[in-house]
Automatic annotation (TrEMBL):
The keyword Ribosomal protein does not apply. This is Inosine/uridine-preferring nucleoside hydrolase domain-containing protein. It holds the Pfam family IU_nuc_hydro. The lineage of its organism: Eukaryota, Fungi, Dikarya, Ascomycota, Pezizomycotina. Belongs to the IUNH family. SUPFAM superfamilies: Nucleoside hydrolase (SSF53590). One of its GO terms (molecular function) is hydrolase activity, hydrolyzing N-glycosyl compounds. InterPro entries: Inosine/uridine_hydrolase_dom, Ribo_hydro-like.
């Protein structure tokens, strides 16, 4: 099974590379990524995928919002974009900015990586105080987007999106935040929760009130897709990159600093979410691989317990635009990890999607 899937993947890669000549940098699916870059390193994998797919013409990375307060998050995101030749991607920083530095006080194994990538690969933004706020950047990117065009990909806490939903008309746009989202966003993709029910850190860890606000006030006309803790926790990226990447690779260095002890193996919660946010279910074939994700439900909607951020799916046949993801039938965690690893070993200057 493993051999036949790999062979099929390679064959499709060859076909895709043969037909990919027309792709233009930044001409793909418009996206905004809202990330908690700081407390886990899979955000680096996610931003790596977004930059590589931007460069090969499948994504248009319009902006990055940081939803953690540390001063190191925004410069680290800018470092990743600049490393991949995309120094003009705007990055916003949550206020108030703190001097917090990641410290693993639950397992005493993981290391800090955000300040290290910010200082070793300085990007165009070196000081979070100079970044716009997430609400400012969201409003300006949304205001200038085509109607129903953007995918917002949330891979951390929902603080910024709650603030945006509550924002009023201003000199950037006569629309409220909620109206801007209704008009400009074609899908919200969220790494958070467990499905069909449970507790997960992005929803319940630091800001369950914002999670509750977003889940309860998100415009009903805009589809939402959830990528749950149970999906990413079955896929471990990083088994190849340590051997195959040069020692000066930013993503592999970040994974090494975080995971520690000579390993880069980590659950792929955020990378899988960004792949879906850019490619949907159907456009994996543009990479030259089989469709790798599927919806696990046909109908219903997500609900939240405000006090602790737990979520539970409600089986309502009248709601058809909310889904949660699973691996497609026949796709193994090994195939998905192979795909994520392909981005982690991607040389920054290579313009095709896969190595
Ligand atoms: C962060 O550290 C700098 C330099 O040590 C200091 O000037 C600043 O007041 C600190 N900021 C906060 C919010 O603690
Ligand atoms: C970042 O910019 C702020 C505002 O200009 C300034 O007060 C602060 O010292 C700068 N921080 C660093 C580390 O340069
Ligand atoms: C975009 O949507 C807004 C309201 O949602 C509408 O007023 C406007 O005409 C639309 N613009 C285009 C170009 O369709
Ligand atoms: C969260 O919301 C509850 C009520 O829903 C409120 O009592 C509580 O103070 C809020 N917590 C924060 C940190 O805002
Ligand atoms: C796939 O899942 C199995 C457990 O079901 C796990 O042992 C293995 O490490 C996983 N492999 C990858 C590449 O994620
Ligand atoms: C896949 O790509 C096509 C155009 O190339 C686009 O129209 C479609 O919306 C994309 N699908 C998803 C789910 O992103
Ligand atoms: C969260 O609260 C709900 C409702 O009270 C409860 O059913 C659930 O077990 C709680 N979850 C956790 C992890 O405490
Ligand atoms: C919703 O439907 C699924 C199967 O379609 C079932 O497994 C689940 O128990 C149902 N949940 C509730 C709350 O009824």
């Amino acid at each position: 099974m493993g051999i036949s899937i790999s062979t099929a993947v390679l064959l499709l890669c060859w076909l895709a590379n043969a037909t990919a000549a027309k792709a233009t940098k930044g001409q793909g699916q418009p996206i905004i990524i809202d990330t908690d870059l700081f407390g886990d390193v899979d955000d680096v994998g996610a931003l790596t995928i977004a930059n590589v797919l931007h460069n090969c013409g499948l994504a248009d990375l319009r902006g990055i919002m940081i939803n953690t307060p540390s001063q190191y998050g925004a410069p680290a995101a800018s470092a990743i974009c600049s490393y991949f030749g995309n120094k003009n991607v705007p990055v916003a920083a949550l206020r108030p900015i703190t001097n917090a530095s990641f410290f693993d006080d639950w397992e005493y194994v993981r290391g800090e990586y955000a300040s290290k990538i910010a200082y070793n690969w300085p990007g165009s933004l070196t000081n979070a105080s100079l970044a716009p706020t997430p609400v400012e950047l969201y409003r300006s990117v949304l205001a200038s987007a085509e109607n129903s065009s953007l995918h917002i990909i949330s891979i951390g806490f929902l603080t910024n999106l709650a603030d945006l939903l509550r924002s009023e008309a201003d000199d950037v746009s006569p629309l409220t935040g909620t109206e801007l989202l209704e008009a400009k966003v074609s899908e919200l993709v969220v790494m958070g929760g467990r499905y069909p029910s449970g507790w997960e850190y992005n929803f319940g860890g630091t800001d369950p009130n914002s999670t509750t606000y977003v889940i309860e006030h998100w415009p009903k006309t805009v589809p939402v897709t959830f990528s749950g803790g149970e999906l990413g926790s079955t896929v471990f990226s990083g088994q190849r990159p340590l051997e195959e990447s040069p020692s000066d690779s930013l993503p592999v260095s970040a994974y090494q600093w975080y995971v520690g002890r000579g390993s880069v193996t980590r659950e792929a919660w955020d990378p899988i979410t960004v792949l879906y946010g850019i490619l949907g279910l159907d456009n994996f074939t543009k990479l030259g691989v089989w469709p790798m994700l599927a919806y696990a439900n046909e109908y219903g909607y997500n609900t939240i317990t405000a006090s602790n951020g737990s979520n539970a799916w409600v089986n309502d046949t009248s709601v058809r635009n909310q889904h949660w993801l699973k691996l497609a039938d026949g796709v193994t965690n090994t195939s998905m990890a192979w795909l994520v690893d392909n981005f982690l070993v991607h040389p920054p200057g290579l313009s095709r999607c896969l190595v």
